[in-house]
Specification:
The complex is a heterodimer.
Chain A (H helix, E strand, L loop, with lengths): L4 E10 L2 E11 L4 E5 L6 H8 L7 E6 L2 E2 L4 H7 E4 L11 H11 L6 H8 L16 H15 L3 E5 L7 H16 L3 E6 L2 H7 L2 E6 L2 E7 L8
Chain B lengths: L1 H18 L1 H21 L3 H29 L4 H9 L4 H30 L4 H29 L5 H28 L6 H27 L1
Classes of the chains: A alpha/beta, B mainly alpha.
């Protein structure tokens, strides 16, 4: 089986700065990978490259069987990214945002309410403009979007940030559910014990390259 | 493409209904500009009628830059832009949808300013009605140009100041053709070749928008 992610000497620039300076990484389908590293190590850039949002300048990169150099648009349709910043329209409610995103992705918008229920955004919260939600609630909304869309590759940039303990448990449960369902997950974190507990593989980045790779605490099982 | 255009237009209009930026900021700005223009011309009805077409289109132009900036600003947040790119929407459809929503908003603005022409500039109501189809054509051009340039400056971090600088020269033909055509109709004639100029501009900018919106979004 081809790996879900395969990077060889992958280089990506932010302006002129090499945010990724020759990354080598293979991720099996259904695997959860936690990427650790200090600020500026290249974790977010790695996720943006895998999402097709950052251009591959040199090296080779394949995501879900697509060549990142030539098929970035196709990759984008098949991945889901939970980024640092608000990813939604601030004036729309969570229910409206999810319905719009599902329609745009050619999915049934009726799935939005079930996903919002799953992350605890129910009742009044589902019909409150997103700008009025707390950072943690907006994070839950991002998780709801991934839950509803069910991408083949989940990319989570510090998913535990801003979440309360229940929210972190929920996030970990969703990651495990996704991986058990066959999706591949790459997440970044500064919380090494927590990230290792949900990951099959833990990699460390520094200076835009992978400097360490070890086994995580999660048992790898593919559906 | 059309499916995505309808989806995006509906989303932008829903956001406008929720935020009411058009109602509370853009329309009052346009009305204020028209009032100031009227005050500058003085009370003589003949001078007001003579200056009405040009000042109407100046007010439309200035207010439409605000509206275009707002339209582009809906996706200004970096996270939102990234998410939209991940949705797999057709870029041409996004352009058409955003331009259609902006067009409808500018039509409302134009209707309010036409009332201003009747009240402040003593313009003949029947002739103003006859000039409305030309105005609708010009407004469509404003929406197409504004949406395209909105994408051009998105992500620069200085879009609110850069957009007027870039878009006003591009909108000059709309101002000239709109003014000349409206003046001709208000004088009792037809819009003549000015309607054709506006139609050509709309087609050119519409086609450019459909083709270039995607690459512009990629580079922003």
């Amino acid at each position: 089986m081809a790996p879900a992610v395969s990077l060889r000497s992958a280089v990506a620039l932010l302006g002129r700065f090499p945010a990724l300076a020759g990354v080598d990484l293979d991720v099996e389908e259904g695997c959860v990978v936690a990427a650790l590293g200090a600020n500026g190590a290249g974790k977010t850039s790695l996720l943006q490259l895998l999402a097709g949002l950052l251009e591959l300048r040199s090296g080779t990169a394949s995501v879900l069987g697509c060549d990142l150099a030539r098929e970035r648009v196709e990759v984008r349709r098949r991945v889901g990214l939970l980024g640092h910043r608000l990813s939604f329209y601030a004036d729309l409610t969570p229910a409206e945002n999810l319905a719009f995103a599902l329609r745009a992705a050619r999915r049934d918008p009726s799935g939005a309410s079930a996903s919002l229920d799953r992350v605890g955004l129910t009742g009044r919260l589902a019909s409150t403009p997103t700008r009025s939600l707390s950072a943690g609630q907006q994070r839950r909304m991002g998780l709801a979007w991934l839950h509803a869309r069910r991408p083949a590759l989940w990319l989570l940039d510090e998913p535990h940030a801003a979440l309360d303990p229940q929210g972190r448990e929920l996030c970990d449960a969703l990651v495990d559910e996704a991986a058990c369902g066959g999706a591949t997950v790459v997440l970044t974190s500064h919380d090494e014990p927590r990230a290792a507990s949900v990951a099959d593989v833990v990699v460390t980045l520094a200076g835009g390259v992978v400097t360490d790779k070890r086994t995580g605490d999660r048992r790898h099982h593919v559906a | 493409m059309l499916r995505d255009a309808v989806l995006v237009a509906g989303k932008d209009l829903r956001i406008e209904l929720r935020s009411r930026v058009l109602l509370w900021q853009v329309v009052p700005f346009g009305v204020l500009a028209l009032i100031l223009f009227a005050l500058a011309l003085g009370p003589a009805p003949s001078a007001l009628r003579h200056g009405a077409p040009g000042l109407f289109w100046m007010a439309m132009l200035l207010a439409s830059v605000l509206a275009a900036s707002r339209s582009a600003g809906i996706e200004a947040e970096e996270g939102t832009r990234a998410s939209v790119r991940l949705l797999g929407l057709d870029a041409g459809g996004v352009f058409l949808g955003k331009a259609a929503a902006l067009f409808l908003e500018l039509c409302i603005l134009g209707a309010v300013l036409e009332v201003g022409l009747l009240v402040l500039f003593h313009v003949d109501g029947a002739r103003l009605g006859a000039a409305t189809p030309l105005a609708v054509l010009a407004v469509a051009g404003l929406a197409a140009v504004g949406t395209l340039y909105g994408a051009l400056v998105a992500g620069t971090g200085v879009s609110s100041t850069l957009l007027p600088l870039l878009v006003l020269p591009a909108l000059a033909p709309v101002l000239i053709a709109g003014e000349r055509g409206t003046a001709a109709v208000l004088a009792g004639g037809g819009p003549g070749r000015w309607a054709l100029v506006l139609a050509v501009m709309l087609v050119v900018y519409g086609a450019l928008g459909v083709v270039l919106y995607g690459p512009l979004e990629e580079t922003s």
